[in-house]
# Entry
Amino acid sequence: MTRLIRARIDSAALRANLQAIRARAPRSRVMAVVKANAYGHGLVPAALALADADAFAVARLEEAVALREAGLKRRIVLLEGVLDATQLAQAAALELDLVVHQLEQIELLEQFRGARPFPLWLKVDTGMNRLGFRPQDFRAAWERLRNLKPAPQQLRVLTHLACADDADGGYTAEQLARLRPLVAGLEVELSIANSAAILAQPSTHAAWVRPGLALYGVSPFAAQRGAQLGLRPAMTLESTVIALREVAPGERAGYGGVWRAQRPSRLAIVAAGYGDGLPRSIPDGAPVLIGGRRAPLAGHVSMDMIAVDITDLPPVTVGDRVELWGAHLPVEELAAAAGTIAYELLCAVSQRVPIELV
Ligand SMILES: *Cc1c(COP(=O)(O)O)cnc(C)c1O
# Structure
């Protein structure tokens, strides 16, 4: 079958990015964050390409199920932990590591009668105000977890940074200052750093780093692209020219007639739309690559198609390949044009877009 649109995932790029992260944080183990379908890259294919990671992190139990069903034996950390006893039993069956971020989870663990003690990650909220124990409640939580019967296999501590991509690092310093006294004197492995902190704040590296975006070759910083950080974009979202048309000056194109020909123009119609995850907020004029050359989007993204103004391009034919973002057109650039972040564009790639691992 001829595929019109596909997300090509470069497994060599994934592996190279993992190596680049190891080089940046040489004393840390790497927990590869593969939540949200590996940021749109395909959970199982991405995890298999990253099989050398020391552990994997997912947000939801279903994601861990998929990884275990695919045969992944490595440590898998459930970042949001479990909600009830049913989930706890499932997590035990899957041999997961659990994040413990609230009292109810400690109570579930105290009542649990499984044979295998869980490896646990006690999450402390140092300023994100999303998940985690408040600093003043940390010690009590730590003691209760240490006293579980059977005792936890390992008890580690994790926190999450809210502003690791800020150049000044002030809020990160505050978060670290809240963490430090809590763990002073404890023999414990810590995990603090996401991609931005791995790349910009070596003091956060600790025993375990937790890269997500950087593994996929994309920059977490507004002012830089992945390539400038020594990363290789792993996803190229590509599609196909399915029709061509010539329009006279003054003619409009697309919904709302937003785009209007200023001169005799040629449009390429490309099979890619918001039904594929291309947000409608990508503005008229945003770049699209056809035959390796940039051409402006003409008008709004529709559900299954976009129009591209190819008037200034050498001849384009039906069937030509189009790059929406990836190896030659940074997703960071599209995200900035659309007023969003690369994370959202990657995660939005929809189910109907097949993933091709190369
Ligand atoms: C998503 C997530 C990460 C990875 O963040 P990136 O910015 O993609 O590197 C790390 N830790 C936690 C707790 C997360 O939820």
